[in-house]
Amino acid sequence: MSSNGKPTPQPPAAAGNGAGGPPKMYQRPIYRPQQGPAKRRRGGRSCPFSCCCCFFWTVLVILLLAFIAAVVGGAFYLLYRPHRPAFTLSVARVTKLSVSSSATAPAVTDAIDVTLTARNPNKKLVYFYDDFAVTAATAANAVPLGEGSVPGFAHEAGNITVIKATVSASALAIDPAASSDIKKSGEFPITVDLETKAGVKVGGLKTKKIGIQVHCEGIKVAAPAPPPPAKKKKLAKAAADAPAPAAVDDAPAPPAPAATVARVCQVRIRVKIWKWTF
């Protein structure tokens, strides 16, 4: 207190220094940005929905293409009535046949003449073939009997073409277990196959060639008869001083009779996918 009895005024306390404690530090408030509404994905569609949509359109396009192909194929069939060519094997004859007597490595030497008739039953379609590869084998165990070839040709609409080929083999090794299929006497069944590539021509349009196989079975052939032993005929002397004429051998044995089979052959389409042929 002062001398005149009034209380002495005290200096004001420092700001933020209450109760004599340490001064308080100013803290800036933490900024928290407000999150707005979640952004919608571009397009407004989820991924599964997009995949389903793509799958749907793909299937729709495939079905549409299949429908168009069916309509075109149906129109082509109604317009041209296409039919496969028909092949008939009419003659098969063995002109030479011999099998070596080896028990471990037998070999066959033969020659087989075959005659086929090819008919194009179509009125507006022309077939054109590459060269034919002709093979023959026994029917039981498919023992090969040789091979041959026939030149290719154009098969006009409604045309009938005669095909002649000779299937031969020279010392062709065969399986000893199946050598009994080839009989030196009597008949034995064989199969004949022709393979080539064929295309179709309609007016000025040509298709791509595809492989075909002509398979003929149910054919029975016989080996040619062995020649008889040589005989010598002596002629009587025409005169006492005339020398005896030279001996004359008999004529060779006739070939085996031709087997007129008239077998209708199957025409198969050969499709090659990579290493496999169907």
TrEMBL record:
Residues 1-39 are annotated as: Disordered. Coiled coil: none annotated. Its main location: membrane. Keywords: Membrane, Transmembrane, Transmembrane helix. GO terms for cellular component: plasma membrane. It is a single-pass membrane protein. It is found in: Membrane. It comes from the Eukaryota. GO terms for biological process: defense response to other organism. InterPro entries: LEA_2, NDR1-like. Residues 115-216 form the Late embryogenesis abundant protein LEA-2 subgroup domain. The chain crosses the membrane at residues 55-80. This is Late embryogenesis abundant protein LEA-2 subgroup domain-containing protein. It comes from Panicum hallii. The lineage of its organism: Eukaryota, Viridiplantae, Streptophyta, Embryophyta, Tracheophyta.
